[in-house]
Known about the structure:
single chain; seven-stranded parallel beta sheet; three-stranded mixed beta sheet; 12 helices
Amino acid sequence: MCIITGFSGGGSGFVGRELTRLLRKRGHEVTIVSRQPGPDRITWDDLDADGLPPCEGAVNLAGENLMNPLRWWNESYKKDLFSSRIDTTRTLARAISSAPTPPRSWVLVTGVACYKPSQTALYTEDSEWTPFDLLSQLVKEWEEAGRLSDDVAATTRQVVIRPGAVLGRDGGAMKQMLTPFWLGLGGTLGSGQQPFPWIHVSDLAGIIAHSLEAPPPAPPTADGPEVLNGVAPALNTNREFTEALGRALGRPTLFPVPGFIMRALMGAERAVVLMEGQRVAPKRTLESGYEYQYPDLRAALGEIVGR
Length: 307
């Protein structure tokens, strides 16, 4: 059995639904940790009171949607971004550590915001980094909250997956983009030269499942979590993504969005995710043997728009 958290809505629910479908297709039983009880679900209160049910793997996808268009960028929202990620991660890590039989694998999904935006640097899982802004500090605290004690880590494989923008039909980044692009109102964000790290939702679910099913290292290690960049192998800019989506839809992309408008609407700290970017390569992900279903924009966008 696998335990998955993160079905409270937003991007995490979008990824969680795809992961649940994939795991069940492969014959795994899945129990979801959520706010509401139901079939094949337990609540966070159940987890606190009764501990972690026996399971082979645990995954945390929980977190307030960073790109929620209905929330203004203010201190309350920032607090929710931190608490919804760090508190749930800490709770699940504590439950894993206190379980009579801890799971074989523990997968935490964070993000590429730890890597400093640059049009020239190429980041792999081996790249060193230190926090430089709010979102990179969030990733640091988030990943630290999930780290297991050395004795538990000797038997439970720890994996951190850092995804880029998640693309798919039913949610994620595409949900807000498709309507203006269908109307012929799409365009680059700013200059469009900023890197755009991305991944198809089926591949993100595939990397998570691959991490859950992979045999533990021999001998076990307590050196810290394995890190996998959850991005497609293709290195694209925002302009390349914009033009590829326009071609897939058969629509023009003539209306760039100026940076000052994005910063005014989203807040400068949040807009940096879209107006700047990182060139991120999935070096260790490929070395792990994972085979991408959608390694480039043409394949990914063709599946998403049905062409």
